[in-house]
Design a protein that fits this description.
The protein is 47% helix and 11% strand. The protein is mainly alpha-helical. 33% of the residues are buried.
């Protein structure tokens, strides 16, 4: 299991932007994104439609930080661009300009500039939130493995779309694509996704092993955490914390610890903060009532993660805090 690959998650975000699914979860994010996107974003939106296929070189499961991967797109070999576009063209029409992409360096530069712009608007302000949610989900999945083994994990990834029928993992793709993928001992990398809400996706060409993206699930789908609050920048080291003034030193430490260790249990939280488990539970209850954290249950264990409101409060600059 791994953190979301940046380009794969960006592809999911671009698709999500062009749909109306899960309005409670994404409506505020879509509204803000549409207001900030410049006309040049259209190039990326045309190549990554809400449904169907997209060129792999734009949505790969490559590992690295976002800026490194965006630079790799600029260095994509012409032969790879032709191959990816030819594959897409087998399933759906390409925008007319895309037929010249591999042979026109200025056009490719414009597309890469468009991709950078789309990343800065759709993903960059939320990347800390995305990786936090993904870390919490991975913690939950690891507990599933410990409790019920890999069978339990695979069966619970995306009910209705992913089915574990030993020894085959059956995946219902949104594209309707039908085929067999033989792992040949390579294994399968599982990556949780915030934006890949509708259906799983798989990158069969990823190295060193294929990557399966599945949507992060929430135990209370009627009240999902929203992306309407943008994570702010962390205060500089040594700055006086407005959070401690507002919540008290211990409760502020509890919130900070949950943000640093999303998906931690109450017992783990108590050990990390250095307080008794009943005290940790009491502080978590107060923070949850204030909508600064959310808690899900796995069997008899409560697992705590920060909300976007909690992250924003943690990152409030001292100069703007009012107590």
């Amino acid at each position: 299991m791994a953190q979301p690959p940046p380009l794969m998650e960006l592809g999911a975000a671009v698709r999500n932007l062009q749909t109306r699914s899960r309005p409670l979860r994404f409506q505020a994010w879509r509204h803000a994104a549409h207001a900030r996107l410049a006309p040049e974003a259209r190039m990326v939106l045309d190549l990554i439609p809400p449904g169907g296929w997209a060129p792999t070189f734009l949505t790969s499961a490559g590992i690295g930080n976002p800026q490194e991967l965006l630079e790799r797109v600029r260095a994509t070999p012409r032969s790879q661009i032709r191959k990816d576009l030819a594959h897409v063209a087998e399933w759906q029409p390409l925008p007319p300009w895309a037929h010249h992409l591999a042979d026109d360096s200025d056009l490719l530069r414009q597309l890469c500039d468009s991709l950078n712009h789309v990343y800065e608007v759709l993903l960059s302000p939320h990347w800390g939130h995305i990786t936090g949610e993904a870390a919490a989900d991975r913690g939950k999945r690891m507990r599933q493995v410990l409790a019920g083994g890999m069978d339990h994990l695979l069966a619970s990834l995306h009910p209705g779309r992913i089915r574990w029928n030993p020894p085959v993992l059956e995946i219902a793709m949104a594209s309707g694509f039908d085929g067999d993928l033989h792992l040949d001992g390579r294994g399968l990398m599982l990556v949780p996704s915030v934006f890949g809400a509708e259906a799983p996706a798989i990158d069969i060409d990823a190295e060193p092993q294929p990557v399966l993206r599945y949507a992060i699930s929430h135990d209370q789908p009627s009240d999902p955490p929203s992306l309407s609050v943008l994570p702010a920048h962390s205060p500089p080291p040594g700055a006086r914390s407005p959070l401690a003034l507002l919540l008290g030193q211990t409760r502020a430490a509890v919130l900070h610890t949950i943000a640093e260790h999303p998906g931690c249990s109450t017992k783990e939280l108590a050990a990390l903060v250095g307080i008794a488990p009943p005290s940790a539970s009491e502080h978590a209850t107060t923070l949850r009532a204030a909508q600064l954290i959310r808690t899900v249950r796995h069997r008899n264990t409560a697992l705590h993660s920060p909300t976007t409101l909690g992250i924003a409060l943690l990152n409030t600059p001292p100069s703007t805090a009012q107590v």
